[in-house]
Amino acid sequence: MDLAGPINGALRRVPPWSLYIVAAVPVIWVFWAGATGRLGVEPVEAIEHRLGLWGLWLLIAGLCVTPIRRFTGVSLIRFRRAVGVTAFFYILAHMLVWLVLDVQILAQVWADILKRPYITVGMAGFLLMIPLALTSNNWSVRRLGPQAWQRLHRLTYGVALLGGLHFVMLRKGFQLEPLLYLAAILGLLALRLVPKRGRRAVPAE
Amino acid sequence: MAHRWTNDLTHDDVTPERAWLNRRQIIAAGGLAGLAATGLAPRATAAPEGLKPNTWEEITTYNNFYEFGTGKGDPAENAHMLTTSPWSITIDGLVDRPGDYSFEEVMEGMTVEERIYRFRCVEAWSMVIPWNGFELADLLDKVGVKAEARYVAFETALRPDEMPGVRFPVLDWPYVEGLRLDEARHPLTIMATGIYGRDIPNQNGAPIRLVVPWKYGFKSIKSIVRITLTEDEPPTSWNKANPREYGFYSNVNPEVDHPRWSQATERVIGSGLFARRQPTLMFNGYEEEVASLYEGMDLTENY
């Protein structure tokens, strides 16, 4: 039974920009909930951690698009840019909450970036996202050429790995949750190494 | 005996929270008759001026008690599963009167006081908590410490049926902690059985826990089932898990950073979204009382 056709048909009717509107809701909610005591007695930590986790979810979602298309035929490619750009804004918000509401002291922010490996790793991941966010538009694809653009955007692999590593490194003790995320990221990257069989090759991205 | 107390429950409405008596402590002391014997002194002894205790909600909903999960809200959600009555503590090792002491036997002759202490977590957050408890030194005297003893080891209950967090080896269960004997005997070191005059909630370490206010919170081991006097430094859970990050002493020290974050400042729980961080005090503000314990020691080496 081929479900991919009807699913792709239905997805074509969803405009990608609707994702930005949907994505704004949790961010507005999390600040509102934190400010009104709905996230417990330590709202700064709660907001910071939620935004970071959601950002990681979005990075992982972005990595899922190609394998889903390859192995099921369902194409979410039209939404991938919105997913990536949303991930960037979530991580940016995560970092700003850490900087402005949590650490607060600029000298300490610098010291943390340089001295604390998990922050160094997280910050490196964020910096790698900047060129990706800046070139997530049609003009940049044309300007760079599709192949160069695609090469540049393979940086997402590094971003996701650094994000997953950042999560593993910041927990105390031996904890399962961040390891599962890292395993998922490694698994999704490994899927890209599966050799393509036969003639029915999927068209190039 | 315990029924004598029931009539007094109506007074809760008019009695300030801080002056409440701890029901479990009174039952343990044998009802009202035992009250005089315990010499309950509800007023704080070590409450520095201007310390404003955190609210009951803050103290009881934001906890680290990994046996019930690693999330801050997990203990409040899951710790109700822990059976805290009956409870007994095995006291052994280099003591004159080793044995299994029921909670009631432990409480016999102890003076329960209110102690409003700063509480500083190694994760760089802090609270102020009005504990009810007795000095550990009194319990050590009761069981008699042999001359060779130099350390006190503590162990938390390990009950897989009641503790969903121990299914995964976040730490090497059971949780263990330790103090040097002079630290354990220090008058600031208490065994807490209450907060705000109520029985200590399970998520905070019911029915009995250690509180060492000048050390990072993880030293103040919860739900204690064993106390062992030893000659050698006992193993401690976080030190076993990551010796580079957590030392045996773990005294609050703004000048010695955790390898992954600064310990110079702390976030005060309950101060809100836009509150400033607060500078962390040497020995968590108890420098005058405890600095002499560490005279001549390199506190960067002995973190």
Describe the structure.
The complex is a heterodimer of chains A (205) and B (303). The mean pLDDT of chain A is 93. By secondary structure, chain A is an all-alpha fold. Chain A contains ten helices and no strands. Chain A has one domain. Chain A is globular. The two termini of chain A are 25 Å apart. In chain A, α3 runs parallel beside α10, α4 packs across α6 and α7 crosses α8. With 303 residues, chain B is of the alpha+beta class. Chain B has one domain: Oxidoreductase, molybdopterin-binding domain (Sulfite Oxidase, Chain A, domain 2, Alpha-Beta Complex). In chain B, 17% of the residues lie in helices and 21% in strands. Chain B is built from nine helices and twelve strands. In chain B, strands 3, 4, 7, 8, 9, 11 and 12 form a seven-stranded mixed beta sheet that branches. Chain B has a five-stranded mixed beta sheet with strand order 2-1-10-5-6. In chain B, a hairpin with a 4-residue loop joins β3 and β4. Chain B is globular and about 50 Å long. The N terminus of chain B is likely disordered. The chains are: A mainly alpha (205), B alpha+beta (303).
